[in-house]
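JOB MANIFEST
job_type = single_chain_structure
chain_count = 1
residues = 298
[input]
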Amino acid sequence: MKVLLPVDIAHPHEDLTEHVSWILPLKDQEVKLVFIKEVLPSYERLVASMGDFPDDWSHQVDKKAHTYLDPLKRKLEAVGAKVSLEIASGPPEHMIATMARDGNYDVTVVAPGQKHNIEKFFMGSTSSSLVKLAPGTILVLRDHKGHEKLNHVVFGVDGSEESNHALTSAAKLLDLANRQVKITVLHAVSVPPMVAIFSPPEFGIALEKNMEMEGEATLAAALKLLEDLGIKGAEPRLVQGEAAWELIRYAEQSNAQLIVAGAGGQKFVEHALMGSAASRIVTHAKCSTAIVKMPHKK
């Protein structure tokens, strides 16, 4: 497993090593720590007009970055990870997504801080942008009181190819076959509002019944995929409502530490998770989230 771990040294995630390591099994895995230097154009012009200061400014930024990255590297190595460092310049979202794509990373971790308004902005904009831009699995860490161990994972499933890929890929990345973790597989049934409003009541009732039957089949297929990976005892859950909100609601009610969902659900009752639903999960869930994307077909 290859993990790309971008770090914001201005607003660091206080327990980053601990948080990543209790979700992802990092022993013997390749981890790259990266800091992206972002300089606004107006400051670039100002700095460039000050003689030898531009070189010194860049040096000071690199020096400051290493004061945080070097101890973090040692902490990650202490849990068995194989760690490398890189400092780059450019727009953070695009640089991180490009690194993830070019380096063929399995997981990109987004680890915003939580005490300042800028971190709330980062949580909303950078996380959502990376969900859209970065390949593979995007793991968004969210601090939550009492979450210090992976005890419960909630998978959102809809029976699509993307959903099945997310289920099997995340199960392998998290090494769930060898961990004592409760697993819930959730499928949400929702009659589209326009159908409910303009269709005869009996049609809506029949449609909902058919969707529930299909949902049961979807859950059974998901459990079979997990069993094929050596993972037994997962709990199926069929609910009514919009998928993203139901995942968030159930994860909060059950005190789950991680939500996993695929990007790009195909069924008409599931809007493409690549867009609105994935953004809602990443932005509004109180626990950590993992959005898993299909690899590009060559």
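[summary]
Confidence is low (pLDDT under 50) at residues 114-124, 265-275.
The first strand starts at residue 2 and ends at 6.
exit_status = 0
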